[in-house]
Amino acid sequence: MSNTATVSATAQRAADTAAGAGARALRRRKLLVLAARLGLAAFLIGGWQFVTSVGWLDPFFFGQPSGIAQRLGDYFSQGDQATEFGSYWSQIATTLREALFGFVLGSLAGVVLGVTLGQNRFLADVLGPYIKIVNAIPRIVLGSIFVVAFGIGETPKVLLAAVLVFFVVFFNAFQGVREVDRNILANARVLGASPLQIVRHVVVPSALTWIIASLHTAFGFAVVGALVGEVLGAQSGLGLVIKTAQNSFDPNGVFATMSVIAVIALTAEWLITRLERRLLSWRPPAPSESAAI
Amino acid sequence: MAVRDDVVTSPAAGRGDRAGARIELSGVTKRFLTPSGEAFTATRDVTFAVEPGQFCAVVGPTGCGKSTTLSLVSGLDRPSEGSVRVGGHEVDGITEGTSFMFQADALLPWKTVLGNVAMGPVFRGVGKKQAQAAARDWVRRVGLAGFEDHHPHQLSGGMRKRVAMAAALINEPSILLMDEPFGALDVQTKAIMQNELLTLWEQLRPAVIFITHDLEEAVALADRVVVMTSGPGSVKAVYDIDLPRPRGSVQTIRFEPRFLELHHQIWESLSEEVQRAYARTTGETS
């Protein structure tokens, strides 16, 4: 008895030290990765600053990190005087509103149509070539049509964002419905599920993996749609800020607004990842973690 | 936990039509259109019957249309010729009171064990609470109490089979269709699941059509073994298994002289078909 007790105690201690060493190694690796990341950023931004300060590149054309930081400070500190069309915050709000509406509109339409066509082979065969044709059109150009038709308010931007989002979500939802396990479908039918119950309990949850995967790229497209719409013609918004900066030969302004947009996109990405974790919590953890990069 | 006891799944439910759940296939031929546009005959002139409450195993070489036969009985598919009758009625639409069990488990990965088992009653329009209570009872009956909130990917293959079994039996089907349900399990788990299936079957007595490659499994479980010829499938012979019930452990019945006798007899008929099917596949590929 005492022998086994000692043995198990020793084994326990060995396991503890092993676990401790493992945790230390893991922490060290994490720190190393973080340090390398910061180093890379410092190298790139510092290098940019350096080549523009010594004159190898002209900061008038290519901007300069210090100038961008200063411009950002100006944008956020000058209140209503920050831009010719009101405060910088209100520009952000405009673009965000357009992108969000477009995102919601486009994803809803994409999911509904994707699920419907995925379920209905006849409809899919009839509409399939037309959807391919419309998808082949460079849809950014539609922005011009929308501006002509709906003026320079927010509507054309919302529509452009929605159109861009729609196709991404639609194709994924369609594919997701097509990939539903045939055995599961047969099983549900034999158990007496009505077509509506099959959609609700089997098809939509099954396609959700695909749909959510598409939302990551879709939000990016929504922002692009809103910005391009604003560049084409607007009264306010970040796209207009960029266009004005471009017209006044101010690359720092362009880069500053670009970095603000990047922050918005990253925040949205983070939110969508949270949503994904919640909705797809049933999934085995491995794939989503390896995809977390 | 108290919920379990006050829900006694009534043995009368679904039993009314059980007496009429005789499955009759007569002269059933099923042709499919291959993607290249050719007609492929899966089964030809299949005729056999399963009595209400009878356990019928179907054995045959690969590609002899065994699974096709099941989808015809369940009503997922229609025969090209001949008739499939359940309880005297021609099958059109999904056959009432049927449950399916596949080789790959048809569990919904996004639902918990409880949610999966509860699907049967939910699809039939039973209230959510009632469905969950019934599901809880069935989860316990297949020995998975405590795993109600797990998702399928957290379970072992054998446990997933138990969930599938509970999900198939919760509606107290009068017909249970099983398509190589234990084909992917390891030998030990398979034996355990076979015993469990027999125990549950003896409680509910649905008519069973059990498709398998494994002749030992067929003889150990079934009242009747149907041997099918290789593609296009048709019935070669039907054997009635007169081993007494309850059979007891599937592992020990294998050593009884009568079992060996029947096994030998059926194997002679089956092996011929297996060899023919094998010769054909190797002949085609080379």
From TrEMBL, chain A:
Pfam families: BPD_transp_1 (PF00528). It is found in: Cell membrane. InterPro entries: MetI-like, MetI-like_sf. Keywords: Cell membrane, Membrane, Transmembrane, Transmembrane helix, Transport. The keyword Transmembrane applies. It is a multi-pass membrane protein. It comes from the Bacteria. Residues 92-273 form the ABC transmembrane type-1 domain. The keyword Ion transport does not apply. Coiled coil: none annotated. CDD domains: TM_PBP2. SUPFAM superfamilies: MetI-like. Signal peptide: none annotated. GO terms for biological process: transmembrane transport. PANTHER family: ABC TRANSPORTER PERMEASE PROTEIN HI_0355-RELATED, ALKANE SULFONATE ABC TRANSPORTER-RELATED, MEMBRANE SUBUNIT. Belongs to the binding-protein-dependent transport system permease family. This is ABC transporter permease. It comes from Streptomyces tateyamensis. The lineage of its organism: Bacteria, Bacillati, Actinomycetota, Actinomycetes, Kitasatosporales.
Automatic annotation (TrEMBL), chain B:
Keywords: ATP-binding, Glycosyltransferase, Nucleotide-binding, Transferase, Transport. It holds the Pfam family ABC_tran. InterPro entries: AAA+_ATPase (IPR003593), ABC_transporter-like_ATP-bd (IPR003439), ABC_transporter-like_CS (IPR017871), ABC_transporter_ATP-bind (IPR050166), P-loop_NTPase (IPR027417). GO terms for molecular function: ATP binding; ATP hydrolysis activity; glycosyltransferase activity. It comes from the Bacteria. CDD domains: ABC_NrtD_SsuB_transporters. This is Mannosyltransferase. Residues 23-255 form the ABC transporter domain. The keyword Protease does not apply.
